[in-house]
Amino acid sequence: MKAVVAREYGPIENLDYADWPEPNATGRTVVIEAEAIGVNYPDGLLVQGLYQAKPPTPFVPGMEMAGRVSAVGEAVTKFKVGDRVVSFTPLGAYAEKIGVDESVVIKLPDNVSGADACALICGYGTSHHALKQRAQIKPGETLVVLGAAGTTGLAAIQIGKIMGAKVIAVASTPEKREVAKAAGADITLGYENLRETLKEATGGKGVDVGYDPVGGDMFDVLARSMAWNGRLLVIGFTSGKIPQFPVNLALVKGFSVVGVFWGTFTAKEPEAHEENMHELIDWLVAGKLKPVIEGIYPLAEAKDVLRRIHDRAVAGKLILKP
Protein backbone atom coordinates (compact mmCIF):
# COMPACT_ATOMS: atom_id res chain seq x y z
CA MET A 1 0.00 0.00 0.00
CA LYS A 2 1.00 3.66 -0.32
CA ALA A 3 1.81 5.84 2.69
CA VAL A 4 3.55 9.09 3.58
CA VAL A 5 6.81 8.21 5.34
CA ALA A 6 9.15 10.21 7.55
CA ARG A 7 12.52 8.56 6.90
CA GLU A 8 14.27 10.75 9.45
CA TYR A 9 13.48 13.87 11.46
CA GLY A 10 13.71 16.98 9.33
CA PRO A 11 11.74 19.47 7.21
CA ILE A 12 8.17 18.68 6.22
CA GLU A 13 9.31 18.78 2.59
CA ASN A 14 11.38 15.61 3.18
CA LEU A 15 8.30 13.42 3.63
CA ASP A 16 8.24 10.55 1.15
CA TYR A 17 5.15 9.14 -0.60
CA ALA A 18 6.15 5.50 -0.93
CA ASP A 19 5.27 1.83 -0.49
CA TRP A 20 4.71 0.70 3.10
CA PRO A 21 3.79 -2.69 4.60
CA GLU A 22 0.07 -3.36 5.01
CA PRO A 23 -1.20 -3.85 8.58
CA ASN A 24 -2.15 -7.32 9.81
CA ALA A 25 -5.39 -8.10 11.63
CA THR A 26 -4.33 -9.99 14.75
CA GLY A 27 -5.58 -9.94 18.33
CA ARG A 28 -7.61 -6.78 19.04
CA THR A 29 -6.49 -5.05 15.84
CA VAL A 30 -9.04 -3.44 13.53
CA VAL A 31 -7.77 -2.71 10.02
CA ILE A 32 -9.38 0.37 8.45
CA GLU A 33 -9.32 1.19 4.75
CA ALA A 34 -9.12 4.97 4.47
CA GLU A 35 -11.96 7.10 3.23
CA ALA A 36 -10.58 10.31 4.76
CA ILE A 37 -7.45 11.25 6.69
CA GLY A 38 -7.23 14.30 8.93
CA VAL A 39 -4.27 16.70 8.83
CA ASN A 40 -3.25 18.41 12.07
CA TYR A 41 -0.64 20.96 13.13
CA PRO A 42 1.09 18.51 15.54
CA ASP A 43 1.74 16.15 12.59
CA GLY A 44 4.20 18.70 11.25
CA LEU A 45 5.85 19.16 14.63
CA LEU A 46 6.25 15.39 14.92
CA VAL A 47 8.05 14.89 11.59
CA GLN A 48 10.41 17.78 12.41
CA GLY A 49 11.29 16.30 15.81
CA LEU A 50 9.64 19.21 17.61
CA TYR A 51 6.82 17.32 19.33
CA GLN A 52 6.70 15.78 22.82
CA ALA A 53 6.87 12.26 21.34
CA LYS A 54 9.78 11.10 19.15
CA PRO A 55 9.00 7.71 17.61
CA PRO A 56 11.81 5.75 15.97
CA THR A 57 12.24 6.41 12.26
CA PRO A 58 11.05 5.57 9.71
CA PHE A 59 7.40 6.11 10.62
CA VAL A 60 4.09 7.15 9.07
CA PRO A 61 2.61 10.28 10.70
CA GLY A 62 -1.08 11.07 11.05
CA MET A 63 -3.60 10.84 13.88
CA GLU A 64 -7.05 10.56 12.27
CA MET A 65 -8.58 8.13 9.82
CA ALA A 66 -12.17 7.42 8.83
CA GLY A 67 -13.20 4.58 6.58
CA ARG A 68 -14.48 1.02 6.47
CA VAL A 69 -13.24 -1.95 8.45
CA SER A 70 -11.49 -4.33 6.03
CA ALA A 71 -10.30 -6.94 8.54
CA VAL A 72 -10.49 -7.69 12.27
CA GLY A 73 -8.32 -9.69 14.66
CA GLU A 74 -9.60 -12.80 16.37
CA ALA A 75 -10.08 -10.98 19.70
CA VAL A 76 -12.10 -8.04 18.29
CA THR A 77 -15.63 -7.93 19.75
CA LYS A 78 -17.05 -4.51 18.84
CA PHE A 79 -16.56 -4.32 15.06
CA LYS A 80 -16.99 -6.39 11.90
CA VAL A 81 -15.81 -6.12 8.32
CA GLY A 82 -17.77 -3.41 6.49
CA ASP A 83 -18.45 -1.15 9.48
CA ARG A 84 -17.86 2.56 8.92
CA VAL A 85 -15.60 3.88 11.66
CA VAL A 86 -13.25 6.66 12.70
CA SER A 87 -10.11 6.27 14.77
CA PHE A 88 -7.55 8.29 16.67
CA THR A 89 -3.99 7.01 16.72
CA PRO A 90 -0.62 8.57 17.62
CA LEU A 91 0.88 7.45 14.29
CA GLY A 92 0.12 5.80 11.00
CA ALA A 93 -2.90 7.56 9.51
CA TYR A 94 -1.19 9.04 6.41
CA ALA A 95 -1.72 5.73 4.62
CA GLU A 96 -4.22 3.78 2.56
CA LYS A 97 -4.86 1.49 5.54
CA ILE A 98 -4.13 1.43 9.25
CA GLY A 99 -4.30 -1.19 11.99
CA VAL A 100 -5.39 0.05 15.42
CA ASP A 101 -6.62 -1.40 18.69
CA GLU A 102 -10.40 -1.61 18.81
CA SER A 103 -10.40 0.60 21.95
CA VAL A 104 -9.60 3.70 19.85
CA VAL A 105 -12.22 3.03 17.15
CA ILE A 106 -15.65 4.70 17.08
CA LYS A 107 -18.51 3.47 14.89
CA LEU A 108 -19.97 6.05 12.48
CA PRO A 109 -23.52 6.53 11.23
CA ASP A 110 -23.76 6.27 7.45
CA ASN A 111 -24.90 9.92 7.20
CA VAL A 112 -21.64 11.27 8.70
CA SER A 113 -18.95 11.90 6.09
CA GLY A 114 -15.41 10.69 6.62
CA ALA A 115 -14.10 14.26 6.39
CA ASP A 116 -16.47 15.51 9.10
CA ALA A 117 -15.64 12.49 11.26
CA CYS A 118 -11.90 13.24 11.06
CA ALA A 119 -12.53 16.85 12.03
CA LEU A 120 -14.42 15.65 15.11
CA ILE A 121 -11.41 13.73 16.43
CA CYS A 122 -8.44 15.93 17.40
CA GLY A 123 -9.89 19.38 16.67
CA TYR A 124 -13.36 19.03 18.11
CA GLY A 125 -12.20 16.41 20.62
CA THR A 126 -9.65 18.84 22.06
CA SER A 127 -12.08 21.75 22.24
CA HIS A 128 -14.90 19.65 23.69
CA HIS A 129 -12.65 18.21 26.41
CA ALA A 130 -11.23 21.66 27.10
CA LEU A 131 -14.59 23.36 27.55
CA LYS A 132 -16.46 20.46 29.16
CA GLN A 133 -14.03 18.71 31.51
CA ARG A 134 -11.28 21.31 32.00
CA ALA A 135 -13.13 24.66 31.99
CA GLN A 136 -16.57 23.31 32.98
CA ILE A 137 -17.97 26.28 31.10
CA LYS A 138 -21.40 27.53 32.13
CA PRO A 139 -24.21 29.16 30.13
CA GLY A 140 -23.81 32.93 30.00
CA GLU A 141 -20.05 32.94 30.53
CA THR A 142 -17.74 34.77 28.13
CA LEU A 143 -15.41 32.56 26.09
CA VAL A 144 -12.49 34.11 24.19
CA VAL A 145 -10.97 31.94 21.46
CA LEU A 146 -7.53 32.78 20.08
CA GLY A 147 -6.53 31.27 16.73
CA ALA A 148 -10.23 31.25 15.97
CA ALA A 149 -9.99 30.27 12.29
CA GLY A 150 -8.00 27.11 12.95
CA THR A 151 -9.63 23.71 13.35
CA THR A 152 -9.60 23.74 17.15
CA GLY A 153 -10.60 27.40 17.25
CA LEU A 154 -13.62 26.91 15.01
CA ALA A 155 -14.55 23.87 17.08
CA ALA A 156 -14.30 25.91 20.29
CA ILE A 157 -16.60 28.56 18.82
CA GLN A 158 -19.27 26.05 17.83
CA ILE A 159 -19.06 24.00 21.04
CA GLY A 160 -18.99 27.14 23.18
CA LYS A 161 -22.22 28.31 21.57
CA ILE A 162 -23.86 24.90 22.08
CA MET A 163 -22.90 25.14 25.76
CA GLY A 164 -24.46 28.59 26.06
CA ALA A 165 -21.40 30.83 26.14
CA LYS A 166 -20.94 34.28 24.64
CA VAL A 167 -18.07 33.74 22.20
CA ILE A 168 -15.44 36.32 21.27
CA ALA A 169 -13.25 35.05 18.42
CA VAL A 170 -9.77 36.45 17.76
CA ALA A 171 -8.13 35.93 14.35
CA SER A 172 -5.38 37.62 12.38
CA THR A 173 -7.12 38.73 9.16
CA PRO A 174 -10.55 40.03 8.14
CA GLU A 175 -11.06 36.90 6.03
CA LYS A 176 -10.37 34.62 8.98
CA ARG A 177 -12.62 36.70 11.21
CA GLU A 178 -15.42 36.24 8.66
CA VAL A 179 -14.93 32.46 8.89
CA ALA A 180 -15.13 32.68 12.69
CA LYS A 181 -18.27 34.82 12.48
CA ALA A 182 -19.89 32.29 10.15
CA ALA A 183 -19.06 29.56 12.68
CA GLY A 184 -21.18 31.36 15.28
CA ALA A 185 -18.91 33.85 17.07
CA ASP A 186 -20.82 36.72 18.67
CA ILE A 187 -17.91 39.16 18.37
CA THR A 188 -14.74 38.97 16.26
CA LEU A 189 -11.52 40.84 17.03
CA GLY A 190 -8.00 41.14 15.64
CA TYR A 191 -4.82 40.84 17.70
CA GLU A 192 -4.03 44.56 17.56
CA ASN A 193 -4.65 46.30 20.92
CA LEU A 194 -6.29 43.08 22.09
CA ARG A 195 -6.20 43.90 25.77
CA GLU A 196 -8.15 47.12 25.21
CA THR A 197 -10.66 45.57 22.82
CA LEU A 198 -11.28 42.64 25.17
CA LYS A 199 -11.92 45.04 28.04
CA GLU A 200 -14.45 46.87 25.90
CA ALA A 201 -16.08 43.68 24.60
CA THR A 202 -16.53 42.28 28.14
CA GLY A 203 -17.76 45.57 29.60
CA GLY A 204 -14.72 45.67 31.88
CA LYS A 205 -15.62 42.38 33.58
CA GLY A 206 -12.92 40.32 31.92
CA VAL A 207 -12.82 36.87 30.35
CA ASP A 208 -14.44 33.89 32.07
CA VAL A 209 -12.81 31.24 29.87
CA GLY A 210 -9.79 31.89 27.66
CA TYR A 211 -8.94 29.33 24.96
CA ASP A 212 -5.32 29.70 23.82
CA PRO A 213 -3.74 27.46 21.17
CA VAL A 214 -1.37 30.29 20.18
CA GLY A 215 0.88 31.02 23.17
CA GLY A 216 3.60 33.62 22.87
CA ASP A 217 2.76 37.25 23.64
CA MET A 218 -0.98 36.68 23.23
CA PHE A 219 -1.01 34.37 26.25
CA ASP A 220 0.24 37.27 28.37
CA VAL A 221 -2.46 39.57 26.97
CA LEU A 222 -5.16 37.00 27.70
CA ALA A 223 -3.80 36.36 31.21
CA ARG A 224 -4.09 40.08 31.98
CA SER A 225 -7.66 40.08 30.66
CA MET A 226 -9.06 37.28 32.83
CA ALA A 227 -12.03 37.71 35.15
CA TRP A 228 -12.26 36.64 38.79
CA ASN A 229 -12.75 32.84 38.90
CA GLY A 230 -11.75 32.66 35.23
CA ARG A 231 -10.09 29.65 33.60
CA LEU A 232 -7.27 30.17 31.11
CA LEU A 233 -6.92 27.03 28.96
CA VAL A 234 -3.44 26.20 27.67
CA ILE A 235 -4.04 24.36 24.38
CA GLY A 236 -0.77 24.77 22.47
CA PHE A 237 1.84 27.12 21.06
CA THR A 238 1.32 27.65 17.33
CA SER A 239 3.20 30.95 17.61
CA GLY A 240 6.33 28.87 18.26
CA LYS A 241 6.93 30.57 21.60
CA ILE A 242 6.13 28.98 24.96
CA PRO A 243 5.21 31.86 27.28
CA GLN A 244 6.50 32.36 30.81
CA PHE A 245 3.58 32.87 33.18
CA PRO A 246 3.81 35.56 35.91
CA VAL A 247 2.11 33.60 38.70
CA ASN A 248 1.29 36.77 40.65
CA LEU A 249 -1.43 37.43 38.05
CA ALA A 250 -3.27 34.27 39.09
CA LEU A 251 -3.03 35.36 42.72
CA VAL A 252 -4.29 38.91 42.39
CA LYS A 253 -6.86 38.23 39.64
CA GLY A 254 -8.14 34.97 41.15
CA PHE A 255 -8.14 32.86 38.00
CA SER A 256 -6.81 29.39 37.13
CA VAL A 257 -4.39 28.31 34.41
CA VAL A 258 -5.55 24.91 33.17
CA GLY A 259 -3.57 22.57 30.93
CA VAL A 260 -5.37 20.70 28.14
CA PHE A 261 -3.68 17.64 26.64
CA TRP A 262 -6.36 15.74 24.80
CA GLY A 263 -4.15 12.80 23.81
CA THR A 264 -3.33 11.98 27.43
CA PHE A 265 -6.99 12.45 28.38
CA THR A 266 -8.03 9.79 25.86
CA ALA A 267 -5.54 7.33 27.37
CA LYS A 268 -6.25 8.05 31.05
CA GLU A 269 -10.03 8.50 30.79
CA PRO A 270 -11.11 6.34 27.83
CA GLU A 271 -14.74 6.06 28.94
CA ALA A 272 -15.12 9.84 29.25
CA HIS A 273 -13.43 10.24 25.85
CA GLU A 274 -15.84 7.77 24.24
CA GLU A 275 -18.82 9.60 25.80
CA ASN A 276 -17.46 12.88 24.45
CA MET A 277 -17.11 11.45 20.94
CA HIS A 278 -20.64 10.09 20.91
CA GLU A 279 -21.93 13.48 22.10
CA LEU A 280 -20.05 15.24 19.28
CA ILE A 281 -21.42 12.80 16.69
CA ASP A 282 -24.95 13.31 18.06
CA TRP A 283 -24.52 17.11 17.77
CA LEU A 284 -23.24 16.70 14.21
CA VAL A 285 -26.16 14.49 13.17
CA ALA A 286 -28.60 16.93 14.82
CA GLY A 287 -27.10 19.85 12.89
CA LYS A 288 -25.90 21.65 16.03
CA LEU A 289 -22.34 21.80 14.72
CA LYS A 290 -20.72 21.53 11.32
CA PRO A 291 -16.96 21.23 10.75
CA VAL A 292 -15.47 23.72 8.32
CA ILE A 293 -13.69 21.61 5.69
CA GLU A 294 -11.47 23.88 3.61
CA GLY A 295 -10.38 21.22 1.18
CA ILE A 296 -9.80 17.55 0.36
CA TYR A 297 -6.50 16.61 -1.32
CA PRO A 298 -4.76 13.47 -2.60
CA LEU A 299 -2.67 11.58 -0.05
CA ALA A 300 0.34 12.04 -2.33
CA GLU A 301 0.16 15.82 -1.65
CA ALA A 302 0.42 15.42 2.14
CA LYS A 303 3.62 17.40 2.59
CA ASP A 304 2.26 20.39 0.67
CA VAL A 305 -0.99 20.31 2.65
CA LEU A 306 0.88 20.04 5.96
CA ARG A 307 3.15 22.93 4.99
CA ARG A 308 0.08 25.13 4.38
CA ILE A 309 -1.08 24.50 7.95
CA HIS A 310 2.34 25.42 9.34
CA ASP A 311 2.38 28.55 7.21
CA ARG A 312 -1.00 29.50 8.81
CA ALA A 313 -2.58 29.75 5.39
CA VAL A 314 -5.65 27.72 6.36
CA ALA A 315 -9.11 28.51 7.71
CA GLY A 316 -10.74 25.21 8.58
CA LYS A 317 -9.88 21.51 8.32
CA LEU A 318 -7.75 19.94 5.60
CA ILE A 319 -8.36 16.32 4.61
CA LEU A 320 -6.31 13.79 2.64
CA LYS A 321 -7.84 11.03 0.54
CA PRO A 322 -6.11 8.02 -1.01
From TrEMBL:
Superkingdom of the source species: Bacteria
Domain Enoyl reductase (ER): 10-320
Pfam families: ADH_N, ADH_zinc_N
Entry GO MF terms: oxidoreductase activity
Residues that span the membrane, as ranges: none
Protein name per UniProt: NADPH2:quinone reductase
